[in-house]
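Re: How this chain folds, sequence and tokenised backbone to follow
How to read it: Take the token row as a discrete description of the fold.
Start of record: The labelled sequence and token lines come straight after this line.
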Amino acid sequence: MEELIAKRYVNALSEVATSEQKIAYSEVLGAIAELLQDEKVAERLTSPLIPATEKTAFVLDGIKGSDSNLENFIKILGENSRLDLIPTIARSLNQELQKESNNYEGVVTSSNALSDADLEDLQNSLKKYTGSTIRLTQTQSAVEGIRVSVEDLGIEVNFSKQRVKEQLIDFITKSL
């Protein structure tokens, strides 16, 4: 439900903004979303004891000097008690920007660090498959194997030793 409401706000903001403004708005809203991860800040914006005008003023103080469209956008969110949707709105706006530019970000998770050449080969393979430019970042985990995930495109690929071993055993037992 949150996603649908956020999408409406993103569509409205996109209608009044240029491409450059959308990028700037995405950065500002992303920074506010990071601040909302702090429990004290989130509590202040969701508390029923604090009036909506104070909550709106609190957020507006953080973006002083920004574009008037963005300030008005924050005021509308405050009037409708939707300031808690800012992280979802920031994520949706970022997804829209990625879709417009056809550039996406993904994550490679593996037990061993991949070389830059391997990471580039993987990015090129994904580009051939999807037709989109995908920039991968790498994280490490304890699971033996590799996992590639590009959430905004709905791509998730897993290769694990355990899974291959299970499939091989299953294939052998079925063939007997």
The longest strand covers residues 103-110. Helices lie at 2-15, 19-35, 39-46, 52-62, 68-79, 86-101, 116-130, 161-175. The chain is about 60% helix and 15% strand. Strands lie at 103-110, 133-140, 145-150, 155-160.
